[in-house]
Amino acid sequence: MRAGTGPTAAREHVSVVIVGGGPTGITAATLLAQYGVDTMVLERWSQVYPQPRAVHLDDEVYRILARLGVADEFGVISRPARGLRLVRRDLTVLAEFNRDNTLTPNGFPAANMFDQPALEELLRRNLKRYPCARLRSDTEVLGIANGLSGRPHLQVRDRTSGRESIVTADYVLGCDGANSVVRDAIGSTMRDLKFDQRWLVVDVETAVDLHQWDGVHQVCDERRAATYMRIGDARYRWEFALLEHESADDFASLPALRPLIAPWTRHVGDAELQIIRVAEYTFRAQIADRWRSGRVFLLGDAAHLTPPFIGQGMGAGLRDAMNLAWKIAGVHRGELSPDVLDSYQQERQPHARQMITLALRIGRDMTAGGRFGSAVRRLVLPRLRLVPGIRTRITDSETPALRRSTMVKPTVTTRGIAGRLCPNALVHNGRRLDDELGRSFGVVTAATPTPHQQCMVDERGAKPIIVDPGSELSDWLRDRHVTAAVVRPDRTVMCAGRDLTALCRALPTFRVDHAPAGTARTQPGIVPAE
After folding, report:
1. Helix segments in 275-399, DSSP class H
2. How far is CA 477 from CA 133, 363, 438, 470, in A?
3. Structure confidence by residue, pLDDT tens digits, 285-328
4. Which of 205, 244, 264, 301 has the fewest CB atoms nearer than 10 Å to its CB?
5. What whole-number distance in Å separates Cα of residue 12 and Cα of residue 169?
6. 10-76+112-189+286-359 and 433-506 agree in CATH topology
7. What is the maximal distance between C-alpha atoms in the chain?
8. pLDDT < 70: residue spans in the chain
9. Is the CB of residue 484 less than 8 Å from the CB of residue 465?
10. Residue 463 burial (C-beta neighbours within 10 Å; 0-12, 13-18, 19+)
11. pLDDT tens, position by position, 508-521
């Protein structure tokens, strides 16, 4: 890693520097700020990117938004989606997979459509609630190097004044997208998973209701695959596979675009359709070989690129932030061992790869194969909805379990629960589990703790949740043949079993309001001695 360190450059120190102020970076900053960690976000641009990119997130990611404190506001700017329809070019339905818009075990609808700029503005407003987090816009990172103590040094430039300075940090999070400067600085390489397609992305606004089924339409067509979805009350999104000789310029006007969107808009006049954006995107599937070098980490698109067929691109970045933030906070405070940080890539990289693989499989199955593939789809897809296992896989939003690490400890009998999210169920006082646990570890148990067990839980800063017989959490434990489960701050089950004393002993010390051991909190502008 390199960075210029001229003797006259101004310097300041921040506990955590986050490069990139998109959804992943702002989420990580907010989570760290909730633990009182001094955090600075360096963002190259002055404002939120105005065009919509991501348009979908699931209930697991909605749960992360709730942790940030913006669930109610997100509910105002989003709409639940009904599921997935596989259709022919003329919109004849091949198969339909409905999703219930009622709440899932995570406490939120399974599929949610939204406008990304509106979400980003919401996240940035929310970040201002935390005085220990700062967003520096119009700031470009020129290079990164390690100081004598191993702390990263960042050479940055104010894009307005041209002034350069040095920022040192205990940790750096690279949330700076597909062309990541941080990834280049640590020598990480993106591994290509053999998917590279050019697609046309079209966003249109109209006050006229298109009278379409209110879910995602996947057009299964060997000539031109396509996707349609309603984003908001008046906003619609189409994505069309581009042919080899085509570009976005060929569809820049409404007359040129009409043949593509006609199946959905035949009854709508030109004057009632407003094109918001017509752009060409190359959908790629890639994953970084290394997500960490010392105190520097990669998150979001800097670490992985997911084709959009399952709507998990932005959500994967928020999952990264949720996985890493509490670990950094615990290590920074001196409570968790630095080895805990190794679990970030151990857990997130296989999960991200599985989600990318699923997106590739669905994209290829629905759109590829030429005329033979189309014939197979005509015969097979209408019958898929009759197969319970397939139907559940498409409509169930639960993602795979995290792999074994120092923070995920499955046994032969607990593989069905360790590494998975604990349900965000209602507890005895009518609150949901996440609200009751706050930002700490928890012990969800069907057995009342003894005084000794309660003392171990209290000493480690965790909270016990004693479930009522017949409740959702009681059934969840019973169905998995365990008495209790240790739940991490990101709500992943760390371990579970029938021996409550052993589980209490497995709890790490993680006190939410505990300052870094033996030190005062470092103030911005003061550079610790190297």
Report:
1. 313-332, 343-367, 370-384, 388-395
2. 38, 36, 21, 11
3. 999 999 999 999 999 999 999 988 778 889 999 999 999 999 99
4. 244
5. 9
6. no
7. 74
8. 1-9, 148, 366-396, 514-530
9. no
10. middle
11. 999 987 544 333 33
What DSSP state is assigned to residue 126?
Answer: H
Q: Show the tokens assigned to 376.
A: 């197979």
Interior angle at CA 410, CA 444 and CA 358, nearest 5: 100
- Do residues 381 and 95 lie in contact, with contact meaning Cβ atoms separated by under 8 Å? yes
CA distances from 127 to 23, 25, 210, 242, 443 (A): 11, 11, 37, 39, 29
Query: Domains of the chain: which residue ranges?
Result: 10-76+112-189+286-359, 433-506
CB distance 480 to 446 below 8 Å:
no
Cα(54)–Cα(61) distance, rounded to whole angstroms?
13
433-506 fold: Glutaredoxin (3.40.30)
**Could you name the CATH architecture of 10-76+112-189+286-359?**
3-Layer(bba) Sandwich (3.50)
The separation between CA 284 and the C-alpha centre of its own chain, rounded to angstroms, equals 17
Instruction: Report helix, strand or coil for 366.
Output: helix
Distance of CA 486 to the CA centre of its chain: 23
Give the whole-angstrom CA distance, residue 95 versus residue 384: 7
Amino acid letter, 408: V
Q: Whole-angstrom Cα distance, residue 389 to residue 492?
A: 25
Cβ contacts of 182 within 8 Å, gap of 6 or more: 19, 141, 144, 172, 173, 174, 176, 296, 298, 302
Pair 239, 226: CB distance under 8 Å = yes
278 bridge partner residues:
202
- Residues 372 and 378: their CA atoms lie apart, in Å, by 10
How buried is residue 222: exposed, middle or buried, by Cβ count under 10 Å (0-12/13-18/19+)? middle
Q: Give the per-residue SS3 of 62-113.
A: HHHHHHHCCHHHHHHHEEECCEEEEECCCCCEEEEEECCCCCCCCCCCCEEE
Q: Give the Å distances, CA to CA, from 292 to 171, 173, 188.
A: 11, 9, 8
Contacts of 37 (CB under 8 A, 6+ apart): 15, 16, 132, 328, 329, 332
* Per-residue pLDDT reduced to its tens digit, 36-78: 999 999 999 999 988 778 899 999 999 999 999 999 999 999 9
SS3 165: strand
Kindly state the helix (H) or strand (E) to which residue 185 belongs, with its residue range: helix 181-185
Locus of tokens 């970084």: 288
Phi/psi class of residue 525: alpha, beta or left (left: φ > 0; alpha: ψ in -120 to 50)? left
The end-to-end CA distance of the chain, in Å, is: 18
Lay out the sheet containing 111-114: strands in order across.
56-58, 111-114, 78-80
